[in-house]
Amino acid sequence: MDKFLEAAFEEAKKGYAEGGIPIGSVLVYDGKIIGRGHNKRVQNGSVVLHGEMDALENAGRQPASVYAKCTLYTTLSPCPMCSGTMLLYGIPKVVIAENKTFMGEEEWLKSRGVEVVLSNHEGCYQLMQKFIKEKPELWNEDIGV
């Protein structure tokens, strides 16, 4: 298992333990995690802190030259907001743990030249299924249903 995807999964588990939506992410540059985060919409009452956005925020402001060499690891297929942010900052690669629970903007990312890698991480899938069963209204709110 990829150590960076496992770090994202650890972030997702933190979010779940905090009563939030279990989606985690890490931003990797030059073989090192420079930002990590998890969905904090519930914990912070935030409208934008998805896992990917939290990881980017925690990485702090970076020059374009850094983003151009980063890979974003995420436990769930990225939504339009997170995908757009990757495009805005020129992040060339995303590694996605699973997309059976939610299919984000993978085709849009690919059409814009982003390398999209799907790992089919069973642990991430199972955690999301457990969460959705326990809190379907929160999941529906998060995906805009």
Concise account of the structure shown:
Helix content is 47%, strand content 18%. By secondary structure, it is of the alpha/beta class. Helix 1 runs parallel beside helix 7 (122-134) and helix 7 packs across helix 8 (136-142).
* Spatial strand arrangement across the major sheet: 2-1-3-4-5
Q: Specify the helix fraction band.
A: 40-55%
Instruction: Specify the number of helices.
Output: 8
Structural class by helix and strand composition: alpha/beta
CA radius of gyration: 14 Å
The percentage of residues in β strands lies in 15-25%
Separation of termini?
33 Å
Q: Please state the average pLDDT score.
A: 96
Global shape: globular
Low-confidence stretches: none
Number of strands: 5
* Order of H and E elements: HEEHHHEHEHEHH
Largest sheet: 5 strands, mixed
Characterise the protein shown here.
This protein is α/β, with parallel strands linked by helices and 145 residues long. The protein is built from 8 helices and 5 strands. Strands 2-1-3-4-5 form a 5-stranded mixed sheet. The protein is globular and about 40 Å long.
Keyword list:
145 residues; alpha/beta; five-stranded mixed beta sheet; 8 helices; 5 strands; globular
Secondary structure layout plus pairing:
Blueprint: H1 3-17, E1 24-29, E2 32-38, H2 41-44, H3 51-59, H4 64-67, E3 70-74, H5 80-89, E4 93-96, H6 106-111, E5 115-118, H7 122-134, H8 136-142
